[in-house]
Amino acid sequence: MKIIVTGGAGFIGGNFVHYMVNKYPEDMIINLDLLTYAGNLETLKPVENAPNYKFVKGDIADRAFIFKLFEEEKPDVVINFAAESHVDRSITDPESFVRTNVMGTTTLLDACRTYGIKRYHQVSTDEVYGDLPLDRPDLFFTEETPLHTSSPYSSSKASADLFVLAYHRTYGLPVTVSRCSNNYGPYHFPEKLIPLIISRALNDEELPVYGKGENVRDWLYVTDHCKAIDLVVRKGKVGEVYNIGGHNERTNLEVVKTILKALNKPESLIKFVTDRPGHDRRYAIDPTKIETELGWKPEYTFDTGIVKTIEWYLNNKEWWEHIISGEYTKYFENMYGERL
Ligand SMILES: NC(=O)c1ccc[n+]([C@@H]2O[C@H](COP(=O)([O-])OP(=O)(O)OC[C@H]3O[C@@H](n4cnc5c(N)ncnc54)[C@H](O)[C@@H]3O)[C@@H](O)[C@H]2O)c1
What we know:
The protein is an alpha/beta fold. It has a single domain, classed as NAD(P)-binding Rossmann-like Domain (Rossmann fold), CATH 3.40.50. About 40% of the residues lie in helices and about 15% in strands. The chain contains twelve helices and 13 strands. The strands form four sheets. It has a seven-stranded parallel beta sheet, sandwiched between helices. Helix 5 links the parallel strand 5 and strand 6 (about 175-180). The longest helix has 22 residues, at about 95-115. Nicotinamide-adenine-dinucleotide binds next to helix 1, helix 4 and strand 5.
């Protein structure tokens, strides 16, 4: 099989490419990524010379480029991770989220229709369901929960999901959608909570925490997400949505304190800052459907996954220090510049 993975130089896409290249040597994995600020080819170093891996730089919203790529490569499967993914950035610049997350998705869908495809999979988020109150721990998001978005980011992701499902209903395109809770693990860009706290705490810098740190997120170790997507693509029913989550709810403050304890750093580093506008209170996934229909179960709890993650950041300082210094942006030029 030839599989196009979009956004494979990002956090989850990068972990997914590693997983697929190693697990399926008989498949060809094409990593299509625009290398925005969030794309980092240093993440792909361990697989960049594998015979079943290829990198292509390009924009999923560039119709001419995407159609040419599909014409040349004739992929069997497309898995779309590419997105603008940071809520804070969506508040300052909503339009780039519409362009990549909505128009990029419809461009890929049109190419899939034109060139025929065995499966299109959309990687989505639990944020499309909005948030849950903090005082109702009995409530969870199921696949039937109505879409009720809060931020420009989640609105763009919800729009994309609706287009994906409409292309199934209208054109019979074989699609699946997965909606996952917050991920953490190796290769996570240090603007997001967990790597931000680890990298700053290691440098004894102040740790910004929104509001009182009471917001609750449902954390999933990234390889558990990758395995779930692989399962949905291979065994999931077309036209269906699958929620992915491991019942690992923690307040942001709990997460920060866990990291500080593991690193033996003082809680005095914590600095509460003005809350994000429209900040979602609680996310919590009900994963019953993927567990019962497809037999998925996460391998890691938050307690085991966070230890593994902290170890990874301690052993891979160069990777995140290059991001903080901006060095990573030169990798494409160094690696591919002469070949272009
Ligand atoms: N991070 C999470 O906790 C989480 C949870 C659930 C779902 N998701 C979804 O998973 C996907 C991946 O998230 P992530 O955290 O790895 O994101 P990320 O920001 O780390 O990576 C996004 C990647 O997409 C690429 N990209 C951006 N615009 C592009 C374009 N126009 N064309 C081609 N490539 C482009 C970037 O260069 C980057 O490599 C997203 O769709 C996100 O909505 C993320």
